[in-house]
Amino acid sequence: MTWRDTFRTAVEAVRTHRLRSALTMLGILIGIIAVILSVGLGQGAQAQVQSEINQLGTNILVVSPGSSTSSSGSRGGFGTSSTLTIHDADALSSTASAPDVQAVAPTVTRSVSLTNGTTNWTTTLTGTTSSWQTVRSRAVTSGRFLTAADEADAANVVVLGPDTASELFTTGNPVGQMVTYNGIQLEVVGVLAELSSSESTSSNDVAIVAFSTYSQRLIGGTSRDSVSEIYVKATSSGTLSAAYQETDALMLNLHGITDSSSADFNIATQQSLLSAANKVDTTMALMLAGIAIISLLVGGIGVMNIMLVSVTERIGEIGLRKALGARPGSIRRQFLVEASVLGLAGGLLGVALGIVGAIVIPHLSDTHVVISVPAAVAAVAMAIVIGVGFGVYPASRAARLAPIDALRSE
Amino acid sequence: MTAVLSSAAEAVRSVEPPVIEMIDVDKVYAAGSLEVAALRSVSIRIERGEFVAVVGPSGSGKSTLMHIVGCLDVPTAGVFNLAGHDVAGLAENQLSDVRNRMIGFVFQQFNLLAYLPAWRNVELPLVYSRIDPGERRERALAALAKVGLADRADHRPGELSGGQQQRVAIARALVTEPALILADEPTGNLDSTSTGDVLDLMSELHADGRTIVLITHEADVAARASRVIQIRDGQVSPDELTDRDDPTTLVASSAAIDAGAS
């Protein structure tokens, strides 16, 4: 029996038992969809986190308040105030004590609601200094960014992110117009350029004011000097570790701490943020892969079950084929090919539905799904391997049947 | 195997060995610790072009004989030459090839594949001898024409009457031009009209020079054959000649029986 005839016979057998074949394929199909979507979701989440970390800028260190030690947990400042202050940022900006630091941007943020007439939009209000633009490598499309003068005057001016601007001002140039926060009018002096990212809107939806404006006029509070994060930009990627050392030494000195293990601040690099994020992603990916493999295994057992039923049901056919001159090898091949046709068909359908899912899911929820070509190819290969692997035993049983026993069962 | 078979075919042409030559064939089945002798010292000789009926009550061993003649099973002891070729000691793959090339089976239950049209059922043995699809279809249609079903080639078995189905099965047995057509109770599931049709077809094939072995328990079916072999308790008894018998085969077969009995 030629391979062509074997393949034709297998396809005919699959088509003859439509419902049974469809149910068998369903098992494989669900497994393959699980593989495609779990890989896609894992990679999507990873890409999202990576792009958010990359959007911080280049050669960035992030100094955040508090520290985590194994014995005492998180160490914060007095009350609710942060252990980081604007004075730390000022000290870090000094070229004398930190020569490898190019720019420093202290930030303090709060989620607020801005209004323009009747239009209302909730965004992240960020208080910072004029160096934020350098540190975060952001451009301004119209108007200007904050200046040192705005900082000195605590001027009521604001720079909007592109998404924020388009939400608040549906028509016309927002520059020169007013937005209101909590009854205080702020003049829009500039709009940031869109950050080329489809994944994250957080970088494009911001309202930036001078730190002094933020602390003295808009938010206030008891700890007007405290900041939530200090972004430190090194002069180049080669000086990043030197900048790290200088920042660490200077901060310890400023806070009067001699033992670096009891520091009340944390310095993170993009690298450390990425590896922390990847560690979480790897755990998630392993978990999803585990679920996918289990569902594929269940699909494979389904194939084996159906093939065993098929062999039992077609004992007469097997006996006849043997009487007519089919060698045991031909019978084995016929059933193996039948099992792999089921696997292949289930796999291809699974990939097709998985891709549909990867396109539909981002529209339904805010997750990003990457369609991975290697994962799709591997999934189809896996489906065939499962078909063949779980088909071996039923096929061998069919091949071993003695023709007289098989004919007698009619 | 091909070489062996073709040399066997050559041997047939040169010295015309019998299609079936069994000498002292035993078949013993082990049922648990009990050994059941299904065939005891059976010797049969069937020449080319004979139409032989094997008759016997159920349990007589005629099914076992049919399985051995059909190369579906191998004898426990004895010599079995099929068309001059010793098949007693062949391995499974070789037996498959012998069945494929030298034997055409006709079963009581027809054993057609329900999901294939008539001509695809007929071509099935040719699929296993790796003949290309064009020739297969041609030969299948010719065989269907031979049994008078040329116009039913694309019908599935379910769309045919019992008699027509059995004729499709006969076409399938003919398509490989086998040395032997082996029919196991071919009329057992048919009404009297269809039985007549099928037996007429058998007689016609015999007239064309084909060798036919027909296994039956019905006397009127056996009467169509030119020679009847009785089997009882695993042993063959001397032949009964029918009125259509040919004196040359009579001599040959009697000699074989004598040899077997001695």
Q: Could you say which overall geometry of chain B the principal axes of the C-alpha atoms support?
A: globular
Please report the two chains with the greatest interface, counting residues with C-beta closer than 8 angstroms to the partner's C-beta.
A-B, 24 and 25 residues
Number of strands of chain B: 10
Helix and strand content put the structural class of chain A at: alpha+beta
Number of domains of chain A: 2
Q: What is the terminal separation of chain A in angstroms? A: 24 Å
* Coarse structural class of chain B: alpha/beta
Question: Mind telling me the CATH superfamily name of one domain in chain B?
Answer: P-loop containing nucleotide triphosphate hydrolases
Helical content of chain B stands at 40-55%
| Spatial strand sequence of the major β-sheet of chain B | 6-7-8-3-9-10
How would a crystallographer describe the biggest sheet of chain B? 6 strands, mixed
Q: Tell me the strand percentage band of chain B.
A: 15-25%
Report the biggest beta sheet of chain A as strand number plus sense, adding barrel if it closes.
10 strands, mixed
Describe this structure in words.
The complex is a heterodimer of chains A (410) and B (262). Chain A is α+β, with helices and mostly antiparallel strands and 410 residues long. Chain A has two domains: 3-52 and 276-408, no CATH class; 67-263, no CATH class. Chain A has helices spanning 3-16, 18-54, 86-93, 132-136, 148-153, 162-168, 211-218, 240-254, 270-313, 315-323, 328-364, 373-400, 403-408, and strands spanning 60-65, 68-69, 73-74, 101-116, 119-128, 140-143, 157-160, 178-181, 184-192, 206-210, 229-234, 265-269. The radius of gyration of chain A is 32 Å and the shape is elongated. By secondary structure, chain B is α/β, with parallel strands linked by helices. Chain B has a domain at 49-74 and 89-244: P-loop containing nucleotide triphosphate hydrolases (Rossmann fold). In chain B, 40% of the residues lie in helices and 25% in strands. In chain B, helix 5 (133-146) packs across helix 6 and helix 6 packs parallel to helix 7 (192-207). Chain B is globular and about 50 Å long. Chain B starts with a helix and ends with a helix. Residues 243-262 of chain B have low confidence and may be disordered. At the A-B interface, helix 1, helix 10, helix 11 and helix 13 of A face helix 3 and helix 4 of B.
